[in-house]
Amino acid sequence: MGKLTVGIIGAGRIGRLHAEHLSRNVRVSIKMISDVFVTDELNSWATDLGVGRVTNDYKDIMQDPDIQAVFICSSTNTHVPFITEAAQAGKHIFCEKPISLDYRQTVEALEAVQKAGVLLQTGFNRRFDHNFKRVRELVQNGTVGQPHLIKITSRDPAPPSLDYVKVSGGLFMDMAIHDFDMARFVSGSEVTEVYAQGAVLVDPAIGELGDIDTAIITLKFANGALGVIDNSRKAVYGYDQRVEVFGSEGSVGTNNDFPNTAEISTKNGIIRDNPKFFFLERYHDSYIDETRQFIDSVLNGEKVPVDGNDALQAEKIAFAAKRSLSEGRPVKLEEVK
């Protein structure tokens, strides 16, 4: 059984999550982790995971000939240069979404990947969720017939910090981009037109930063289906993640994940737990599965399940949504050159 030597760039929340999952994969060896802030706590954490070295210079990872694959978990503004450097160094790449806040820069990164002949997987972990995978399977095998309507609900339990909002690229790029990818994933079709409406209903400070916190986005697909996505930065009852595909022969939908399925029924009503509250809890298994499949793809010389084009298409939809909101009109994807 082969083993893959990896380096991880970025030891924030998502970088540590991937590191902890990879450390339990017998087919992986984490040789190095880089982060701009190297602390005693980071060193201790990395040692406990069996990581060989911690550095504050990502180039140490790029220049290490033993490292075969790089996990890019740093801030979005670093993704394109890091992808380019990793590709030029002949290393396979797993990069968190989005690849960039400007899809034209993403095109440049993908060209570098193609030229180098390395694999690039992007972190759309929701594709690996057990619920959403089942929806996709049933649509693909024709159980619900020709898709007519795709409905996606995606609501966070609480808004992010204002510091994050300042650099995130906005709701369409940092939050709804998962839903744009999911729309393509479950429909099996490309989006051809986007119409977005948004409002500031959760926190006025988000509006002062030029963003929105509530949105309705309607989509048209190449296969003729219609879609609607609703987003909110604040669902007080928990992390609200639902999908439905309605077609000519029926429909398939998924509800939220709950800590348990117990229901209490009394004369006063029926009570059950709220949905899981945070995305790390809700999508715990999907994060494990996406990295496992990336490792398998590299070691077996196979295509990755979510490639750079998937990232590019989601970013183009996000760009079209931004334009639609600002111009108050539907935007065709063919306008996004």
Q: What keyword list fits this structure?
A:
337 residues; alpha/beta; Rossmann fold; Dihydrodipicolinate Reductase, domain 2; six-stranded parallel β-sheet; 13 helices; 15 strands; globular
Could you walk me through the main structural features you see in this protein, from its secondary elements to its overall organization?
It is a single chain. The chain is an alpha/beta fold and 337 residues long. The chain has two domains: 115 residues, 3-Layer(aba) Sandwich (Rossmann fold); 179 residues, Dihydrodipicolinate Reductase, domain 2 (2-Layer Sandwich). It is built from 13 helices and 15 strands. The strands form three sheets. It has a seven-stranded mixed sheet with strand order 12-11-7-10-9-8-15. The protein has a six-stranded parallel sheet with strand order 3-2-1-4-5-6, with helices on both faces. It starts with a strand and ends in a 5-residue tail after the last strand. The relative contact order is 0.15. The mean pLDDT is 95.
- Tertiary shape: globular
Low-pLDDT ranges: none
Count of distinct structural domains: 2
Helix content: 25-40%
- Helix/strand structural class: alpha/beta
Radius of gyration: 20 Å
CATH first level of the largest domain = Alpha Beta
Q: Note the quaternary state here.
A: single chain
Major sheet: order of its strands? 12-11-7-10-9-8-15
The number of helices is 13
- Mean pLDDT across the residues is 95
